[in-house]
């Protein structure tokens, strides 16, 4: 049974945008102390499952490639000691996805944080605007918060899918099935605005980070401007407060006893 861990794998993170027909290199570096023997690249499309693009065994000379890479020569692995980069040439719209760099040894699998490759095609119709509100959301631990993503479809008449990304120390792909609330202002599809919600109940400090909504439609993906979720510090432990109060009371009593003893000695000296 394999174990997945947070990794010593360092890769490009966030969002990388590239035009259709262009090329891009996704970088991946490994800690010099790592003992991994297999190095891989994975791809996860919006709403899809992860798939393996490449797996390289450290001691293969020359390295052997998966059949998938042989059938897709636009993808190439650039591998040397401590590096395992993925180069994509003649980028196509279907290349838009989250790409993870990974390694494994002794049934332990480690992943990088992941990077989303956004493919831009100026010829495709796209949503006019994607707006997120609020830009900054501040809440307390244990409370709930709702993040909004408003979409105006523009000239695109296809149904769109909305996904949420959380980006802090890692890039997490979240999918919300919450139906939109749509309103029409005027006539035509361009007058329709739909709002999607990401609800987070019982917020904890681990939920802090930046959340992005991504709208997929007409072969294109557009991102919102992001919402920063700030989780306030929790109040201190009540037991600690009680201990502090008890300590202060003991100190106060000690000072009073010292003053009483001094007064008593002084009185005895004067009356003797």
From TrEMBL:
Location(s) in or outside the cell: Cell membrane
Pfam families in alphabetical order: V-set (PF07686)
Transmembrane segments: 244-269
Cross-referenced SUPFAM superfamilies: Immunoglobulin
Gene Ontology CC entries for this record: plasma membrane
Extent of Polar residues compositional bias: 128-144
PROSITE patterns membership: IG_LIKE (PS50835)
Region (Disordered): 122-144
CDD domains xrefs: IgV
Positions of the Ig-like domain: 21-107, 127-215
Main location: membrane
Keywords: Cell membrane, Disulfide bond, Glycoprotein, Immunity, Membrane, Signal, Transmembrane, Transmembrane helix
InterPro entries: Ig-like_dom, Ig-like_dom_sf, Ig-like_fold, Ig_sub, Ig_V-set, TCR_complex_component
Gene Ontology BP terms: immune system process; response to bacterium
Matching PANTHER family: NITR9, T-CELL RECEPTOR ALPHA CHAIN V REGION-RELATED
Record's protein name: Ig-like domain-containing protein
Organism from which the protein derives: Mugilogobius chulae (yellowstripe goby)
